[in-house]
């Protein structure tokens, strides 16, 4: 079997690469932190000395990197993947980047006879650990068929959203709703607390009407409403995603006033020291600002 | 059996009063529009000449009126309910009003030996027609027991949210989430359309993550996404509720920047002529502003 | 000479009434706090026992009260001015209220043969002390002529803005710009501080371009930029005015997204304990939130 | 005398280069549009074939380019200025870019023994035509002395704001206030129009209080309030600057909710077709949205 390349072994990339190894894929990996690469190499992957080596050896190269600028350098830089990739190889970028970067890199790849797929990741790091991620994929049909086995090894839910670029764009729309819902919930529950309403009764009502949202129903009762603000997804990362969204919307001439207001609320939460907490802790940030008691469910989750 | 009074026979009050009649309650009713009262009277209710008559004859008086000022006048005005109510009677206000009005009227009622319950209504006018409303009730336990049979005759879901005022406050929190979700969805789908994403595929993804909300999942596919903007709940009414919410939040010293941004978005939609459409048509208003094709599901709902 | 009535002897009303006394007007005054009335009475005014007495004795009755609800009660309540005013008398309301209240009270006054003038006050309490206030007057020409001598005794700048209601409306527009400029300046200077710019040099530039505004140029160098946050006009009062403005704009179907965002910023400043400081301290509130050094001019004001 | 290089001969660069020629500087110029270069060459400048030639020949190279990405390519690209500049030469970037780009390029220049100055331009294109621009300069003292003669040839007002990067940062702060003032004024005058106030009288009041700002007092009476929306500075460019500002603020962890709301208002104006009009036409965009008559001064400017 052909080697699969993997560049970027951080909090998300490491478990994803590990899952590929465990499911029998042969990997050549790289990370700027050699310890991260060594850790994955312990699972029978080969640790390459640099990106060029990965590109030269692999048929499919996966990238999982922190932002657009890094993806740009790793893919299109002078010592990057495209400069060393074999014709006919395929790059699958799974980072969250701005869609114009995706479009540009895909066009550059096409000029060099390299296929390009964008497949950003949904759900949390803990899902990646368990191989239960969700992927939003932008790819031509044939390329989607090529990457499908890898995606099935790393996650449980795979959406083919359209041609190259559609994965990244879908992720922006998805994360806009998920992240902004947190600020919505923060405002609703801070108000509810201040008005003296009982949290359990109020949630009962909200869960029974169209006021409900996935964050409030699924994510929050296991996190901030129990006092757990350990990050599944930090306020800092949510702010980064909102920034990508607001920039993409402004570039595309779509006025999004609520997105912009939400972004500044995340900026305020970061500025006052909440950046490293889970993004559900937006309600704690607002309650701290306004001197309101934090909303906490009384009973433990399993004691009901 | 004691007579039940009902003041306010508009789009919501009429079907609610009718359902009470049908379930065997004996009503004495009033509306400033005599035709509305006559219509309900055809169902064996007695049409009183004025509010004072209703107050003098009934043990429980229900009010279902357009705003805080009208409720204030009908309950506490010189010819209003409190001026003519029997000691021991009970007022149940089912209008959507600001909570400080509820508190003030409840205190005034208590001074005169009259019980007070706030029980605003959730769901749409079409639910009221079928006796399927949802009620958020603020009441002392004994008063809640008194009004419960009436509520059961008019709806299917009854939440006892806490003492007097808790119903109104819960409704504000609930409607904040439901109404603002519409602006969230409007921005998300306008962006999605502009980015060239396929609507069905995008909704598939959103419905499978915590990005989902009740409006997007339950309400919209049967309304705006099918091109149906006939109002279940108008943008004008949504704007009214958001205004109550923003005012209540500012009075309570809870900063709600997303609520404020959403309210101005509803104000802009009203200003550009969308006030009479269903509140899901916020996405049409945004698409019209930005020259974006409206999002519409391709297949008819039953043809899947 | 006819008696002039004055109701409301708070932080603004007291010096205004005092100036009238000093300039030779004979006053009959009232305040709910008898000590306030006694203090003015020491200047040869007569302290009446209640509003009705003031109304019955005076040809012109001035009101200077904290908000719309109090003005409503004092003017139109059962023991209020209109119930006891002589035909041909004139009410001049100098409070800051919502314009629909002004319109309603003016109409009610007209029905009873009483003239009505709205003349809200610009500038600060310290200007009122020195008889240097600015007035925005809504009045018919003849009524304007009647009140002009009083206004000239209390201030130095008098604008006849149009018919009744035009004073209140002009004040809203004026205060919108003045108050929101403070949030603009707060954001600009917080950013400037964080970016490491020199305050004096930056102000030099801003004062030389169209970026300048009256708050930044005139008000701030003598207040917050010297570390003086003693209130000339508190953040709480600025928030009250912004609330009137946002409500009036929404009632008038004028979308004002920046006004709404600014109002929530004032709400946040209040919530975090800055409500009693001068409204120029909005920049201190933002710097405190974001951990930025407060902008302060180095040299004392007179050492230049 | 040494040759001066000039790269970027658009709407701003052309008159600036022309003024340098007229004042006796010997220029070597380049633009991607050869006609623009030819036009300046007619003034005795030499039109170079590419950027490299300009860099190789000139002691000081001025850049006046549309955005950060273009400046980055022209300065640091493989065929850019730094690759061909002589040691001891100086780059003065007069474009409006994000400050992190300035910092990065200045550091890169320093590594190659090239001095770097940022000197973005204030005021309008018509000022540049007349050599009346304003410059905000970030430079070491010695470098400032080197560029000063050029700046004096192109403008009338020169601010030395601090070390490299301080010019760009000051321009962001300055333009934040100027551009956002336009949205403030738009909201204030739209509200004023809707409330039926007389424009002249209202401006009289505003000009006499701290509500005034430079746009309203200086810029608007000659532009939009006379019906002149020919761009001195377009809504599109104002939107670009606001975008730089909002991004810089978010990168610097300074919450700026009013900036964010204003940016979306400019985005909405662009989306509805006003992007090419003068930025004072924000009030026309808002009035068009809300069905309000545009504010126009009655008398011609010289007929007073």
TrEMBL record, chains A, B, C, D:
Matching InterPro entries: 3-OH-isobutyrate_DH-rel_CS, 6-PGluconate_DH-like_C_sf, 6PGD_dom2, 6PGDH_NADP-bd, HIBADH-like_NADP-bd, HIBADH-related, NAD(P)-bd_dom_sf
Keyword annotations from UniProtKB, A to Z: NAD, Oxidoreductase
Highest rank taxon of the organism: Bacteria
Keyword NAD: yes
Positions of the 6-phosphogluconate dehydrogenase NADP-binding domain: 5-162
The 3-hydroxyisobutyrate dehydrogenase-like NAD-binding domain, residue ranges: 165-285
PROSITE patterns noted in UniProt: 3_HYDROXYISOBUT_DH
Protein name: 3-sulfolactaldehyde reductase
Native source organism of the sequence: Methylobacterium crusticola
Native organism taxonomy: Bacteria, Pseudomonadati, Pseudomonadota, Alphaproteobacteria, Hyphomicrobiales
